[in-house]
Amino acid sequence: MKRDTVNYLVVGLFVTAILAAFFIMMVFITGRAGPSDHYFARYENVTGIKFGTGVFYEGYRVGQVESVEPVPAPNGMRYKVSMTVAKDWRIPADSHAEVITAGLISQVQIEIREGISTELLIPGSEITGVQQVDLFSALSEAASGFNDLSATGVTPVLRNLNKRISQVADQIMEFRRDELSPLIATLNHRIDDELAPQALTVLRRLDASSARLDQFLGPDNEAKVGQFLDNINSVAVNLNELVERLETTRARMDGVLVHLDGVILNNEGDITDTVKGARRSLAQMETALTTVNERIESVMYNLDGSARQMHELTRALRENPTRILRTPATSSDNTP
Is the dihedral angle over the CA atoms 114, 119, 123, 127 positive or is it negative? Predict the structure, then answer.
């Protein structure tokens, strides 16, 4: 009997210890492990936020949500979220309480983003709340936007494009029927009636030219063509020799010019004197010509008189050739 009582006592103590450990563990998990300060934040949407939701400061858990209270506002319903933070925790005044989700399947939590202000929040004051961005809502809105775009933008564009393609196809078919087909028929007619006979004529002329070329390059003219090529080769050789001789002559002329330059340089004084003498001679000649020019009139006058006298003498001799043998009587001979 005593043994059963001892067993019941041991079992009861074990259960009591388990309950106490569970209670202590729950206290630690919920953040009620010690003294805390109270703060609050306001949000437009509190999906997932409830009592016990964790409050973190730059990733470190500092407290939990205590209550969520709706507060009417002029521009719609707002929700006041009260939270407890570890006692004497330093929170800058420009910090933000942002609602975040660590992962796709993680619970919602409040993350306090540390500010840079040196002024600290007083316990009981408001922390600026930053609304959570719902990924699934954003995806839903994006999908709705794509649906609207497809219905109002892409679909009409595709319809207009299909209409334009149909119009272009009709125009292409009309062009093929009204212009391209007659053009092809005209080309076929021109080829059959004009170009083909002309091509045959050209081919006949080419055949005739080929026959003449074969005749020109036949066995009878092969020796002549070979001799002609040999003569051209000989002419090329002679031209090469001529070019070599011209090159030799040019070299000799270069030597002569060099020698001539030397002679000119050596006789520069004599050449200068000769040029000066030539200039003096030209000056004297110019003076003589000037003198002749001044006296040419009197000379011409005398020549003219002499020419008249010779003309009279010649006329007198033709009339009386004996005058050349005797002298005509003067006035002194006829006097008594």
Answer: negative
Identity of residue 13: L
Q: Give domain status of residue 244, yes or no.
A: no
Residues 297-312 have pLDDT tens digits of 777 777 777 777 777 7
Number of domains making up the chain: 3
Q: How many CA atoms lie within 13 A of 117 on its CB side?
A: 12
Q: Could you tell me if 125 and 40 lie in one domain? A: yes
Q: First CA to last CA across the chain, in angstroms?
A: 241
Residue count of the chain: 336
Residue 79 pairs with which residues in a beta bridge?
43, 70
Residue 52 lies inside a defined structural domain of this protein: yes
- Condensed to tens digits (0 to 9), the pLDDT of residues 66-96 reads 999 999 888 888 999 999 999 989 999 999 9
85 and 148 assigned to the same domain: no
Given a contact cutoff of 8 angstroms between Cβ atoms, the answer to whether 68 and 49 are in contact is: yes
Residues 62, 110: contact at Cβ < 8 Å? no
Structural domain of residue 95, as residue ranges?
A: 31-133
Provide the whole-model pTM. 0.36
